[in-house]
């Protein structure tokens, strides 16, 4: 058993060395923790700002043992952490948060939607298919268009294609790699929203206001927060977030992506059991941001406030857009967050800015 709350001076472990790990590590450092990152790349965005990098795959038993030797509380920045990595850490006496249940649900789009519906959080109609033939019969029953997504490992719009005609379903199944898929009815949404929420070890919750999100080519471009929504929508989103947190016996920050329909109803698109790109606005819009909130939760500290002091427009800097840093640095209301990635590739998330206006 690990003694919680974890005192400053202890080491926190993070699986994954990307930008989310980096911003978690910075928040942890501000609270006085040392950070150990487990990551394949010796020079990672998170590793650059942490005390230790343990170089290895997430499921490398030797690397996990090394991590467990220094960190008694471990979290992750990436939902596709193998379940056996979590199990190995737990067997080594490490407290892993969020837990295996949240990971299992978030890693499989079918399990996720089943969980959501069972918890009273509505989603689009969906069905699973494990073969081209099955996909075709699902399409015949549900009708087209349908969005076919791989059940596992899709992100930023990857691993999904529209099926416009029943006759295309089998070929689309093959084009996605012949792996198990989910077929989703189209959400006729007017806006995409998201809500960032946290639950502490004591079951207390903290929920931020909604963000309005704009994607391009499946990648988040821009978030506006707090979103301009009716009281009813804000309350409904909070209710959904509370159900998700409780239903997963969750510890940490979760990102919940929502569709706002024409009639004002909300559907959940997906849940990310981690800090989330659409929550970056909290860094400059709230006194305790999603990263510190997550660290507080997993370390067993009390959660912080979520009331915004500023309205924020968050813009992702993709690829060589990061080269505009010098111009952005002249803008007094623009806060710059760069990730230390050495190479700008098209579409790669290199940083973001928060354009801030005090409320
Ligand atoms: P996802 O990978 O599930 O987050 O989906 C990426 C993007 O595809 C979402 O942000 C939406 O813009 C769109 N999308 C996902 N699911 C649906 C759906 N069932 N109907 C319409 N658009 C969707």
Account of the protein in words:
The protein is α+β, with helices and mostly antiparallel strands and 359 residues long. It folds into 3 domains: 11-96, Rossmann fold; 125-184, Dna Ligase, domain 1, CATH 3.30.1490; 189-358, 2-Layer Sandwich (D-amino Acid Aminotransferase, Chain A, domain 1). It is 28% helix and 30% strand. The protein contains 11 helices and 18 strands. The strands form 3 sheets. Strands 10, 11, 12, 13, 14, 15, 16, 17 and 18 form a 9-stranded antiparallel β-sheet that branches. The chain has a 5-stranded parallel β-sheet with strand order 3-2-1-4-5, with helices on both faces. The model has no long low-confidence stretch (mean pLDDT 96). Bound molecules: adenosine monophosphate (AMP). Residues 124, 147, 154, 157, 184, 186-187, 192, 215, 218, 257, 269-270 line the site of adenosine monophosphate.
How would you summarize what this structure contains?
The protein has 359 residues and is α+β, with helices and mostly antiparallel strands. Helices cover 28% and strands 30% of the residues.
């Amino acid at each position: 058993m690990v003694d919680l709350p974890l005192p400053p001076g202890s080491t926190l472990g993070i699986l994954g060395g990307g930008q989310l790990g980096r911003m978690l590590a910075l928040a942890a450092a501000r609270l006085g923790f040392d950070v150990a990152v487990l990551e394949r790349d010796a020079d990672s965005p998170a590793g650059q700002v942490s005390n230790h990098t343990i170089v290895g795959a997430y499921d490398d038993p030797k690397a996990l043992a090394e991590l467990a030797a220094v960190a008694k509380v471990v979290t992750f920045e990436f939902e596709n952490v193998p379940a056996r990595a979590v199990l190995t850490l737990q067997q080594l006496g490490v407290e892993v948060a969020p837990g295996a249940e949240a990971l299992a649900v978030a890693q499989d789009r079918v399990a996720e939607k089943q969980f959501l519906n069972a918890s009273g959080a509505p989603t689009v109609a969906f069905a699973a298919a494990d073969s081209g033939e099955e996909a075709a019969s699902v399409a015949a029953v549900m009708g087209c268009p349908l969005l076919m997504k791989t059940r596992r490992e899709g992100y930023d719009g990857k691993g999904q294609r529209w099926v416009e005609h029943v006759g295309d379903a089998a070929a689309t199944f093959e084009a996605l790699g012949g792996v198990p898929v989910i077929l989703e009815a189209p959400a006729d949404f007017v806006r995409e929203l998201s809500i960032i929420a946290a639950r502490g070890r004591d079951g207390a919750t903290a929920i931020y206001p909604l963000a309005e999100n704009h994607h391009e080519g499946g990648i988040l471009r821009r978030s506006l927060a707090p979103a301009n929504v009716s009281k009813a929508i804000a309350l409904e989103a909070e209710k959904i977030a509370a159900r998700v947190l409780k239903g997963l016996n969750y510890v940490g920050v979760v990102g919940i992506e929502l569709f706002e329909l024409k009639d004002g109803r909300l559907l959940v698109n997906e849940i990310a059991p981690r800090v989330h790109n659409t929550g970056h606005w909290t860094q400059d819009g709230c006194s305790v941001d999603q990263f510190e909130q997550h660290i507080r939760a997993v370390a067993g500290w009390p959660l912080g406030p979520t009331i915004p002091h500023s309205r924020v427009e968050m813009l992702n800097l993709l690829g060589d857009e990061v080269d505009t840093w010098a111009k952005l640095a002249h803008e007094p209301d623009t806060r710059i967050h760069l990730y230390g990635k050495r190479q700008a590739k098209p579409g790669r998330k290199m940083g973001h800015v928060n354009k801030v206006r005090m409320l």
